[in-house]
Amino acid sequence: MSTSIKVSEERVRAAVREQVTEGTLRCAAAFRTAEELGASPAVVGRMANELDVHLARCQLGLFGYGEPKSAVTPAEDVPFELEQAIREGLILGRLPCAVAWAIASRFKMPKLHVANAAEKLGVRVWQCQLGAF
What we know:
- The protein is mainly alpha-helical.
- Helices cover 46% and strands 8% of the residues.
- The protein has two domains: 9-56; 80-126.
- The protein is built from six helices and four strands; from the N terminus they run αβααβαβααβ.
């Protein structure tokens, strides 16, 4: 069940425009906008797409970092508890973005660390909450 309230598309569109810098909208700004408006991140991502705004600086490090496009590097080692949480979160063999965020919160670690661990384990992250992938 969604906790977001119905927000007008025009209000979301205007808020996205306010956050755009050099034709891009950072992931963190998109989530902040969604939270402030009570909209879902998917709606903010859809508005960015409709406005031809590129999403940047994925908080999991997966895209939007120039060259190379990703900030993800395989972790040197993955603690058993973290590996177990990642494997338990898999859907069709992949880790949904929202689950990666939840794991980061649960283990009180940066989201990028979860993506680095997933990379080390050969696990792909999918279902971007903003709709980027």
